[in-house]
Amino acid sequence: xxxxxxxxxxxxxxxxxxxxxxxxxxxxxxxxxxxxxxxxxxxxxxxxxxxxxxxxxxxxxxxxxxxxxxxxxxxxxxxxxxxxxxxxxxxxxxxxxxxxxxxxxxxxxxxxxxxxxxxxxxxxxxxxxxxxxxxxxxxxxxxxxxxxxxxxxxxxxxxxxxxxxxxxxxxxxxxxxxxxxxxxxxxxxxxxxxxxxxxxxxxxxxxxxxxxxxxxxxxxxxxxxxxxxxxxxxxxxxxxxxxxxxxxxxxxxxxxxxxxxxxxxxxxxxxxxxxxxxxxxxxxxxxxxxxxxxxxxxxxxxxxxxxxxxxxxxxxxxxxxxxxxxxxxxxxxxxxxxxxx
Amino acid sequence: xxxxxxxxxxxxxxxxxxxxxxxxxxxxxxxxxxxxxxxxxxxxxxxxxxxxxxxxxxxxxxxxxxxxxxxxxxxxxxxxxxxxxxxxxxxxxxxxxxxxxxxxxxxxxxxxxxxxxxxxxxxxxxxxxxxxxxxxxxxxxxxxxxxxxxxxxxxxxxxxxxxxxxxxxxxxxxxxxxxxxxxxxxxxxxxxxxxxxxxxxxxxxxxxxxxxxxxxxxxxxxxxxxxxxxxxxxxxxxxxxxxxxxxxxxxxxxxxxxxxxxxxxxxxxxxxxxxxxxxxxxxxxxxxxxxxxxxxxxxxxxxxxxxxxxxxxxxxxxxxxxxxxxxxxxxxxxxxxxxxx
Lengths: 341, 341
Known about the structure:
The structure is a homodimer.
Chain A: E1 7-13, E2 26-32, E3 40-49, H1 53-57, E4 78-85, E5 95-98, E6 105-109, E7 118-119, H2 127-130, H3 136-149, E8 156-160, H4 165-176, E9 180-185, H5 188-196, E10 202-205, H6 211-218, E11 223-228, H7 232-239, E12 242-250, H8 271-274, E13 278-281, H9 291-303, E14 311-315, H10 320-328, E15 335-339
């Protein structure tokens, strides 16, 4: 086996944030790399995935996954290179994806359940794409849209956070299925990108003018599927424009994650009754046994140039705290990735 | 043909109510009965169905049915006897159910679409049961529970408005399907009735103690199906206790119908995400082509004594305004029916 003589630089959760995450909520720790035990591997992190869901993991609340403990390395998905191995499962030089955490090196059992490591083929797509379209955001988009949204050709699909990690793939997949696709995003640059580069039919800039007017203009036949990444006022507005038997996919509520007061419930939820519509929550892990099918479909479309994978790469693990907050300020443009090595 | 020499006494909508309906929102009108044209029938109203949905029909808002116009006879379902007929469809003496409106006599085409008249067999069940378990509330309960709630034997079903028209049948049908059934109702008398007479496993009195504690006590394995007739705080509380893949059926929101401020949206709706659960709106008219199947199933259980139909009958059409408001004060005990003749 080979070892490196580097330290492992980590960001650990120092305090449970109230509202937006502050620098003091993090503890930066450097510790020596340890020797491997039998069955273990050591991975040098290349890229980390920064996701809105991470904010939820920092709260001490019952959710679909246990909270990160105080003092624990912050949970994060990532991609890295195997630099040492005492397991037949991975060889030095393999590129693997999994729950590496916010640290420069991950060391542990090759079959660790919470890391859930798997090899990726960077000849098929670059590493950052494996954290985006071919990673959790892509799987969330693909299975959430198909299984819960159930769009049919000719229907109108609206997606919020349209330039973000999940939204970009939701809209592009819906276009492949023959839907009219309208995005909602913040700012002219994102909206132009979504229409001109990703091929959405239209994009509503929620920072400029009214979402209600935008929906009236761009969804003249109403909304059949709404894929919601943001919650709050935008969800409430879309509820007023849904069609009979509409499907609302609740994927996230980024507008509400840093609330210090109660989450704003959708006051227009009785539109579900009037329209015999449904609202359903999805979590990507439920589709784990079929990820390979999602990867195959999305990789095929990527290869054919039918869809694109757009990442926003921030360089340097030391910038992790500021980079994470970009998500909640809407500053990232595409899937946010932190380059570590 | 036979005619009566009576006047037709009607309640017409005089003004759109703000908040609770006031007496001045109604206009009581008496007009002479008219002669029938070819194809028409005249029906003498026996009983009228008073339903929470009627409050919504009085608002000038887009909904699943057009609002009642100012000056129009208030819409209501009812049962009556054919007292005159120039149609081969109905004979004098037939008992029919349909949209008779709040009036002593309905006169119109036998095939009028909005009245949607159909003969009922009062040997099978009394007239009031045809407005309850075998009428719209029963159909709402039966199809809403089965189609949207999809309860399985052994699951826990919670229903609010448990002693009301829809709730009583939801719970009893769920018991027939082998579910654990917990009602939510206001007051000890209703709760006792629901448990002792209707056979629910438990009933939580929302006027006495905390619904949250009641759910913890009576739903130790969580909530798989919640059939919501009330909305508001109770919906929000149940959302904190749902299981993975739970189904919430949105049938109504009686707590919100007289709001003068915005409807309270369910602040805990992100529980849908955590639990991959869904919330779906239902409207009974969607099942119209299968009402006969619902009637057959429910009439069978009624005949075998396996379920009961509980009505609260108020006497006299002149008491219509006060009787309607009983629904929103929670004063009715069972399906509210107005006896007209």
